[in-house]
TrEMBL record:
GO molecular function: oxidoreductase activity
Family label: Belongs to the short-chain dehydrogenases/reductases (SDR) family.
Keywords carried by this UniProt record: Oxidoreductase
Domain of life per record: Eukaryota
Entry protein name: Retinol dehydrogenase 11
InterPro entries, per the entry: NAD(P)-bd_dom_sf, SDR_fam
């Protein structure tokens, strides 16, 4: 189902803490640039103590259905040897799900729930960076593209719904099945170790 479900909730956010990572629309160019440099892995690391002390808390990592085309290139994680925007994008979205799985495992029993969300194809300003043929394609299939409000449904669902499955991948306001590569716990652990090494940090 490519069309987002209409979803609403009377649940209030009072006393709850949720962080949403993986998006860059609406947060300002400088903030987006800084997050791109430091990474959402590092941002979550910096907020870890606050999240634990604020439980129940949520970490929501935005990903994409495109993760199914991704592969983790451990020999070239930063695309320094060979760069292609699509290859880098799908790898990053796969990495978001693997990070979600491993973080959920490490935070089990802390009151912090972690999930990965695919908001669907959303009409945002990201299309302004696309080449003309892609812009024409997006325009032609605009009836399948969600508005920003529709794209936020699943994120809000995961922020507000009780008894969410930690480590889960959500799409259209429901638990979904991710790719085999995104379900590989060994790759998730290896990526975690490499990420800590690259950032020079040690998770508590």
């Amino acid at each position: 189902n490519i069309i987002a479900k209409s979803w609403s909730s009377n649940v209030r956010l009072d006393g709850k803490t949720a962080i949403v990572t993986g998006a860059n629309t609406g947060i300002g160019k400088e903030t987006a640039k800084d997050l791109a440099k430091r990474g959402h892995f590092f941002l979550t690391f910096l907020l870890l103590d606050l999240l634990k002390h604020s439980e129940p808390a949520r970490v929501i990592n935005l990903t994409s259905m495109a993760h199914s085309m991704g592969r983790i290139h451990f020999d070239d994680l930063n695309s320094e040897k060979s760069y292609h925007p699509v290859k880098a994008y799908v790898q990053s979205k796969l990495a978001n799900i693997l990070f979600t799985r491993e973080l959920a495992r490490k935070l089990e029993g802390t009151g912090v729930t972690v999930c990965a969300v695919d908001p669907g194809i959303v009409h945002t300003e990201v299309t302004r960076h696309m080449k003309s043929p892609l812009q024409m394609f997006v325009k032609a299939f605009s009836f399948l593209i969600r508005t920003p409000a529709e794209g936020a449904y699943t994120t809000l669902y995961c922020a507000l719904t009780p008894d969410l499955r930690s480590g889960g991948y959500y799409r259209n306001c429901t638990l979904a099945t991710c790719s085999r590569a995104a379900s590989d716990d060994r790759t998730a652990r290896n990526l975690w170790v490499v990420s800590c090494h690259l950032l020079g940090i040690r998770w508590r």
